[in-house]
Amino acid sequence: MTPEPSPQSCPPPSPSPPPPTPPPDLTATRRSTHTAHTTHTHIAGIPLPDSALAREATDLIRDTTDELLYHHSRRVYLFGARHGRERDLPFDAELLYVAALFHSLGLTDRFHGSRQRFELDGADEARSFLAARGVPPARTRLTWQAIALHTTPQIPHRMAPEIALLAVGYELDVLGIGYATLPPDTRNEILTAHPRPGFKRHILRAYHRALAHRPETAAGTPQADVLARLDPDHIRPDFVRILEDSAWPE
């Protein structure tokens, strides 16, 4: 009869593998790792929203983006809000501010596995952020729409002021559209608070990193394809050329 092995002869059980690390929760407030910046209540005469929601959104974006995208997002708000104030448009400054902060979030490394358009990544995160804080669905939906449509030509300008103004701010900061209407003093004060050294070069690299793994999301409109095929004289607008040739020096 074969004796049973003693307990000492049994190998100890293998330790359980550690649980996988969950992705960072963007709806949680974390300490900012950015270089400290002076807190402003107004920049170039434009008030910055200072509600608890706006402050929490600012802290979150400063902690989850780099200096390039943080400063870009704040400039987009300032340019959009200035445009709205100049035209006496009734807009929700807090909503526009949150939309501006989240609009380029899809360009960050967190979404380099995403297969949807980068605009949708930022829009979805903003929706989750606002819904988790009890923001009414109508305001949440408007924020989502503003971010999702901010790179779409013409259409945002026919929609709610917050949607239109986010597109205006984005187009001015990235493509220089409306640059000539910006007084030099206003421009200099905004750039002092939120500088853009090498912005043209760095934002193109950020777009490339975000799009290289999902090129299908960068397709143009069907109408552009029709013109390219049937109109031998058609010249497609070139986003990169417009950006590089804009009046912004860098």
Report what the structure shows:
Residues 1-25 have a biased composition (Pro residues). This is Phosphohydrolase. Residues 1-40 are annotated as: Disordered. Residues 31-40 have a biased composition (Basic residues). The protein has 250 residues and is mainly α. It has one domain (45-244): Hypothetical protein af1432 (Orthogonal Bundle), CATH 1.10.3210. The chain is built from 10 helices and 2 strands; from the N terminus they run E-E-H-H-H-H-H-H-H-H-H-H. The chain has helices at residues 52-64, 67-86, 93-102, 118-132, 137-148, 161-175, 184-193, 199-211, 222-230, 239-244, and strands spanning 42-43, 46-47. It has a two-stranded antiparallel ribbon with strand order 1-2. Residues 1-38 have low confidence and may be disordered.
